[in-house]
Amino acid sequence: MRSCLRLIWCVVLAVVASAQEEVVASAVAHARAHPQGDAPASFVVADYRRDLRDLPIGVFDSGVGGLTVLEAIKAHDRHHNLTGAEGADGVPDFAGESFVYFGDQANMPYGNYSAVGRTDFLRELVLRDALFLLGRRHARGAKPPVKAIVIACNTATAYGLEDIRSAVKAWGVPVIVVGVVEAGAQGLAETAEGAQGGVAVLATVGTCASNAYPKAIVKVSGRPVRQLGSATLAAAIEGDPSVKTPIRDIIRAEVGAFLRSASADQAVTIDTLMLGCTHYPLVADEISEAFAYWRDQPDADGRKPYARLVAPKLKQVDPAAWTAEALWRSLHGAKMRVEPKSTARDLFFVSVPNPAWPGVGLAADGSLTYEYKYGRQPGQVGREDTINVPLTADMLPAPTARLVREKLPLTWKSLQPAR
């Protein structure tokens, strides 16, 4: 019986691996068929046969949450700009760089694709994101190619990091690829001195389903990990009108449910929070407040059932800062950094539904319907049911714009029109 089950499991794994290889192979073949970058999801091969140092750095996410990673990169100052030696010099480490940011807003949230069995389509979306950054085309003109790709999305990193690296290698493109999950786990290992308790990973349902953070954290630290997956918080931070519950109430309710489950399992005391979704640094204070609230909340008998579960002082780990460090180390090692210059200008793009695409499913507000969004299958890398357009600050929902303006000042400044 055991040998039979083992055989079945091996067959399942083989089928999954074959499907994953097919997704990558399809993207690789599509780009190779369009070496002039004249089709959606393609790039100009000649752009990557020259010195890449003056090209911008590409950053992408499933929405605007990745702007927190861009902010961390722009603010990063851990090295001397002239020598590369460790130690801040008062000049941001990426002062000479420009950036191209892309948020796949029309196809978000990425975290829901795994829940409906569409991880292969998600992986195709992630490869399309990378191809957009590598290429020159967008719906209203041209953009520069990029010398590095930062996957500023935890779910996209979990499901697509190795795919992008495999595709880049197959194309023979010398582009650096960095993901937030590896960087976050390394950051926890390097900065959580004295913290020996459990780690709570707060992320989307999709990121939690991938088990990427527990694997990465256990690998570098061996500490126990417990995950809190949210299906709505990222969308609420984005300003999704379908989410009616206030952000603070969502966080408090989900943290309470998480602690009830941990208490029932007699989990170890949690002393570290991993902000495993790029949106969550925007509400980091609210997350800390929720854990403090439940730690001090008495039950009907006047006892505090969660006081043991939550350490008096919680350390938060934001993978964004460590993604910036991983990017710096990679660019420095490859001698692909540029000298500071005043002409650097960032570009921002976002995807929107394309009503001209045959059979596209559109809701009353113009967004993709849930059934259409999560019913698609991989196999059309060049599909254009969504198109990518320039993003400006006035396109952001009011709550999101306020968060970006107040908490991401460098990025907010870059979003303003050139003068």
pLDDT averaged residue by residue? 90
Largest sheet: 6 strands, mixed
Structural classification: alpha/beta
What is the strand content? 5-15%
Number of DSSP strands? 12
Spell out the helices and strands N to C.
HEHEHEEEHEHEHHEHHEHEHEHEHH
Radius of gyration: 22 Å
Tally of separate domains: 2
> Unreliable runs, pLDDT <50, ≥5 residues?
7-17
CATH top level assignment of the largest domain: Alpha Beta
Q: Kindly report how far apart the N and C termini lie.
A: 72 Å
CATH level 3 topology of the largest domain: Rossmann fold
Give the strand order of the largest sheet, numbering strands 1, 2, ... along the chain: 6-5-1-2-11-12
Reported CATH architecture of the largest domain: 3-Layer(aba) Sandwich
SS field, number of helical segments: 14
Query: Looking at the structure, what is the overall shape?
Result: globular
Supply the key terms.
2 domains; 419 residues; Rossmann fold; 6-stranded mixed sheet; alpha/beta
Folded structure, characterized:
With 419 residues, the chain is α/β, with parallel strands linked by helices. It folds into two domains: 18-179 and 321-415, Rossmann fold (3-Layer(aba) Sandwich), CATH 3.40.50; 183-318, Rossmann fold, CATH 3.40.50. Helix content is 41%, strand content 15%. It has helices spanning 2-32, 67-75, 119-134, 154-171, 180-191, 205-210, 212-220, 233-238, 247-264, 284-295, 319-333, 370-373, 398-407, 409-415, and strands spanning 57-61, 99-103, 137-138, 141-142, 148-151, 176-179, 198-204, 225-230, 270-275, 310-317, 347-353, 386-390. Strands 6-5-1-2-11-12 form a six-stranded mixed beta sheet, with helices on both faces. Helix 5 crosses helix 11 (319-333) and helix 13 (398-407) crosses helix 14 (409-415). The longest helix has 31 residues, at 2-32. It starts with a helix and ends with a helix.
